[in-house]
Amino acid sequence: MKRVSDTGASRYISEPFFKAAVLSKGELRPLGCLPAVKYMRWAGFLRREQGETAADILRDLKMDCDTMDRVKILVSRWRTPIAAEKPAIRRVMNQIPGDLFDSLLCFQEVFAGEVGEGYGETLKTVKALAEEIRRAGDPVNLKELAVDGRDLMAAGMKPGPALGKTLNALMEQVLERPECNERAYLLRAAGLENGIKES
Questions:
Q1: CB of 43 closer than 8 Å to CB of 70
Q2: pLDDT at res. 12
Q3: Is 178 within 8 Å of 139 (Cβ atoms)?
Q4: Cα–Cα distance between 111 and 28 in angstroms, integer?
Q5: By C-alpha distance, which of 189, 193, 90, 188 is closest to 144?
Q6: Residues 75-90: what's their mean pLDDT?
Q7: Best CA proximity match to 29, nearest among 42, 44, 39, 16
Q8: Taking a C-beta distance cutoff of 8 angstroms, is the pair 146, 183 a contact?
Q9: What one-character DSSP code corresponds to residue 137?
Q10: Percentages helix, strand, coil for the chain, rounded to the nearest 5?
Q11: What angle do CA 171, 101, 66 make, to 5 degrees?
């Protein structure tokens, strides 16, 4: 890598890549603990970068869009501890693609010492609570919400930006309290109780 940089060829490949590639042996060693999955290894290699910078580097290297997107999410999120509370865990599940949640936990486990002192123990609790959330079938995304945009419009809400904001607000309530994921309750919470039709 040094030889490529010394010859000046690095600028024809990806100058930011060669700047990011300056990692010590100690920093490189944990990469072997990550699954041998392309986006996980690249995220580990570029973990010191900002998410957008990591994506730019991979774009320069002509990497596929799926890998770029996954690396950007992991690099952007791995430093942020997840609180060992179900609402907080459900929010993280809501904010990233479902299959990336486990990748994020794996990534944080490998680099737990860099996330924060004692985070490894917290992460064990987070994993256990995440399994409880899954077993209970708690809703964590808009597709699982008991109402959708059509329901809100049928109950009297006009289409527009307010509709999306309302759905997000209802989702937030359900992330906090999954038992609230009932059509009648959510329509009342949206101020549309007059539009509730008896089934």
A1: yes
A2: 44
A3: yes
A4: 11
A5: 90
A6: 97
A7: 44
A8: yes
A9: T
A10: 70, 0, 30
A11: 105
Provide the token pair at 31: 């990469």
Query: In this structure, what token pair is assigned to residue 22?
Result: 């300056």
**Rounded to the nearest 5 degrees, what angle is found at the Cα of 116, between the Cα atoms of 91 and 70?**
50
Contacts of 146 (CB under 8 A, 6+ apart): 139, 181, 182, 183, 185, 186
DSSP state of 180: G
pTM exceeding 0.90: no
Both tokens of 91, joined, read 């929010």
Kindly state the tokens that stand for 188: 């009342």
pLDDT tens digits, one per residue of 137-163: 999 999 999 999 999 999 989 999 999
Query: How does residue 7 score in pLDDT terms, banded at 50, 70 and 90?
Result: very low
* 188, burial (CB in 10 Å: exposed 0-12, middle 13-18, buried 19+): middle
Structure tokens at 156: 């009297």
| Rounded percentage of the chain residues whose pLDDT exceeds 70 | 83
Question: CA-CA distance, 185 to 144, in Å (whole number)?
Answer: 15
Residues 188/174, Cβ–Cβ less than 8 Å: no
In this structure, the number of other CB atoms found within 10 A of the CB of residue 57 comes to 24
Report the phi/psi class of residue 148: left, alpha or beta, with left for phi > 0 and alpha for psi in -120 to 50: beta
